[in-house]
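Shipment paperwork, digital attachment
Item: protein structure file
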Amino acid sequence: MQTTESLLTYNFRSAQQTLLFKPYLPFRIYFKMNQENKKDITEITHDKIDYQQLTEDIRSNQAGAAILFLGTVREFTKGQQTTALDYEAYPEMAIAQMKELIKQAREKWPVIHAGIIHRLGHLELGEISVAVAISTPHRGDSFEAGQFLIDQLKIHVPVWKKENWSDGTTEWVHPTGEDTVPTK
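Attachment content:
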C-alpha cells in the first residue's frame, strides 16, 4: 500500500522522537516528542490548522487544564481594512525556535503537553493562522504558559506576515507590529 506520508522514528537519550514528512508539502515538518510522558507538537504547514486534533493531542489525565489559543485573520488593523494575509517562514529555524519556546515554558510552568502550529501561505479573513495549545495541572499555569508561548512566538519565531489592504496595497509587518515595510 502506497502512502503519502513517511515516518522516521529513533531513540535519542531515552526520548522517542517521531518525524512525519508529507512530501507533497515541502515545508511541512511535524515533530512529536514523548519524553517522560511529555508530548510536544510543533508544526509549520500550508494546510488548514486542525485545532480540534491539536487540543486532543495535548489533553492528558494528569492535566486539570487545557487551553487553546487561535490567532485569526482580522478585518481591521490600526484602522486599515485587511482583505487577506500572506505568511512566509524559514521552516527549519521556526520549528527549532518553537521547540525552544516550549522548553522555556516547561522551565517556568508544570507543562504536561504543548503544541504550536503556524500556517503559511495566503489566508482569507477569519482563517486561523496560528494555534497554541497547552495542558498543565491547573488553569492559571495553562493561561500564563499559553500567553508566554504566543507572545514569544511573535518575537522570536521567523514567520513573516504581509497585510493585503482593501486599497490594493500590501505591507510586510514585523510580528510585534514594529518596523513595517510598505510594498505595492
